[in-house]
């Protein structure tokens, strides 16, 4: 299995990358559950590894879930709330959350943790941990993250509509988004390396393929393949998924090599390979996966610690889909 080969290939690098990034978000704590739920990380890891056995694309789902949670109101598990009282007002009802999956795994991890340490572990920390423990088994760095996020009591579809960037977002907006979470330029390019895993629906690609003005950032050969995979704007466009890079189960720097060759799946992937500010960094990561892993690690800690609720600002939901 490619995933396994990838794991073997990168195990040394991953081990070498277990560096602690300084606690940048002062209110979170690397030892937060030391006495209240010491086994929390292993519980999440075991559950995620179990899921990967039957669904090797699950790590991609957990990484994207974290981004989409953190992007709306901060990393507060708002994405898991069902809408009440108004139907259809959950974040998941937003079209921007098309393809978000594996929420059921988060709910089942929560049930396990409620049995072990009732009322202790927030859903927001579970979302962050599920993403974190997804990276190393895919061949990426072993990241340490601080914990202690609390869960929100609110969520709204409209916020997701506005805050989650579309596939054709500009580099300016991308840099603004990550700057607001304290990521520097290099970290902003590194966090996009999450697109080394998983894939996207044709729906998010077809606009690049069939408009009268062909997208000149797509390599012509790759364009032919994409037009074959995503033939027309039909209902199927909502269903077909195309891989993000050539190694979608492997957390490697292939994404950067692909985008440099004009094989970026989304408009934004192509844009970072040509924008004067980001292109030199894309080239560095394409040539040096250790560097990509190191910068991705610090970027991940910042993203997953952004706009968190701590202490009395939020709650530890007993069920992740509803407030207490
Ligand atoms: C400007 C920023 C970003 C844009 C515009 C963007 C856009 C997208 C789009 C359109 C998809 C395809 C969704 C689908 O059609 O199913 C996608 C997939 C994905 N994104 Fe992003 N993304 C961004 C940043 C990020 C970040 C920061 C992460 C994680 C840290 C991330 C992780 C992923 C992953 C892992 C997938 C594949 C999901 C799967 O296979 O289920 N993305 N992204
Ligand atoms: Ca959120
Ligand atoms: Ca890859």
TrEMBL record:
It is found in: Secreted. Pfam families: peroxidase. Heme b binds at residue 195. The chain crosses the membrane at residues 7-24. Its main location: secreted. GO terms for molecular function: heme binding; lactoperoxidase activity; metal ion binding. Ca(2+) 2 binds at residues 196, 247, 252. Disulfide bonds join 37-117, 70-75, 123-320, 202-230. The active site is at 68 (proton acceptor). It catalyses: 2 a phenolic donor + H2O2 = 2 a phenolic radical donor + 2 H2O. It comes from the Eukaryota. One of its GO terms (biological process) is hydrogen peroxide catabolic process. The record marks 64 as: Transition state stabilizer. Residues 27-324 form the Plant heme peroxidase family profile domain. GO terms for cellular component: extracellular region. Keywords: Calcium, Disulfide bond, Heme, Hydrogen peroxide, Iron, Membrane, Metal-binding, Oxidoreductase, Peroxidase, Secreted, Signal, Transmembrane, Transmembrane helix. Ca(2+) 1 binds at residues 69, 72, 74, 76, 78. Binds 2 calcium ions per subunit. InterPro entries: Haem_peroxidase, Haem_peroxidase_sf, Peroxidase_pln, Secretory_peroxidase. Removal of H(2)O(2), oxidation of toxic reductants, biosynthesis and degradation of lignin, suberization, auxin catabolism, response to environmental stresses such as wounding, pathogen attack and oxidative stress. Belongs to the peroxidase family. Classical plant (class III) peroxidase subfamily. This is Peroxidase. It comes from Gossypium mustelinum (Cotton).
